[in-house]
Amino acid sequence: MQESNTNSEIKIQDQKIQRNKNLSIGEALIPVIALIAMLAFNVFVFGDDALSGSNQFVLLLGGTVAALIGFKNKVSYKLMMEEVAENIKSTASAILILLMVGALAGTWLISGVIPSMIYYGLQILNPTIFLAACLIICAVISVATGSSWTTAATVGIALIGISEALGISLGMTAGAVLSGAYFGDKMSPMSDTTNLAPAMAGTDLFTHIRYMAYTTIPTFVVTLIVFIILGFTQSTTGNASTTEMLIDIDKAFNISPILFVVPILVVVLIIKKTPPLIALLAGTILGGIFALIFQPQIVAQVAGVEKLDFKSAYKGVMQAITVKTSVATENEVLKDLFTAGGMVKMLNTIWLILCAMVFGGIMDAIGALAKISNFMLNLFDSVFGLFASTVATCIGLNVTASDQYLALVVPGKMYAKAYKDKGLSPENLSRTLEDSGTVTSVLVPWNTCGAYHSGVLGVPVVDYAFYAVFNWLSPFMTLLFAAFSIKIRQIVKK
Fold this sequence. Notes:
This protein is mostly helical. The chain has a domain at 94-345. It has 26 helices and 2 strands. A two-stranded antiparallel ribbon has the order 1-2. Helix 8 (148-166) runs parallel beside helix 24 (448-457) and helix 20 (368-379) runs antiparallel to helix 21 (383-400). The two termini are 37 Å apart. Residues 1-12 have low confidence and may be disordered.
């Protein structure tokens, strides 16, 4: 998912979980219940506009409720702010990546990279196979890069553009993109979560990946079948209706397969384990250079001049990187496709992440996260109950802590001994952490992953959540295996 960083992963892994013996489970749940109720009412009032700012303030109100519970239980304001600061600090790389994705989208638009992807994609991907192709393409890219974030920010953006041109639901397309992206995020040995989960559970990386395949591959196959079926519900006249669109794209941009050098270079850099932030910066700068070479007329248009010189070229590229940019076209369908938000488009998402980290930090400081996890641990005594409580805790932490890493780290620390006491091998825990913690993060609008992907793809979480089949089916698959004792490995006593 996010930028792989060994030092930050070790820090998260060693992070101290705050406990508070004075806090009751009822008190720990009050901020969660209050937050969910306030968010539900807020969405009822504002609808899709809730993400423009009101949801962010509701998260701060939820943090206020948690702080009041903390004051009642003698938790200091200083400790709460320290935990909030640590949470916000942990999102620094995510915020920078978000800004760089906005910049990259701007230069890839004016350089013709995204229009070229759409142009050739419209000729290859017809509506019937489009959704299944999105799933497979994103799965392959994500396995190769180990990053769902990079997959969404590169090929995902292009596929969204193609789907809009074909008239296919953006929610369906985003669901297919993220299903494929998170398959790779789980299964790639280069993914940070794939390394973090076995480290928390006490098993090795490749044992974890092999054992995870038992639940992940069937889930992916079911997801593929669903998107193949959905593909047959799409209009098959898409190719005929896109002829005019192809002509208009060709009129506006100098379309060339050479432009694919830019996204290919970014993917190669990621595969070579270049930090995603550096790879995205390289892609942004290269996109600006290609814009000046292949689309000087577009750069001039963005800069508001008739003839380019050094000053206006600089202005045009910087405009594309930083603010909303539109390329003129008479085709109504293409107007949205020929618009990029730049870095400024990502500010609402960053605002959401920061407010979510405030809520999660205070919840951790008052001991609520530890109390809820312990409560779930003691709720069931059976083996299935242990798996069920792990799944519930991971999902709950994605909602309350708003961070995918904490949804792996906290349950990993809490449940490791319980699995051992039940005679279960540690890979059972590591697989369950990934099946429920890694993949469901993208289904929560205020989680760092949900906010990121919604911002990058331009599709609200509520629009794609139902179609992100792989993501919501994975927890059910791991519970199904637990219920029928399928591939539940026991500790082998030597």
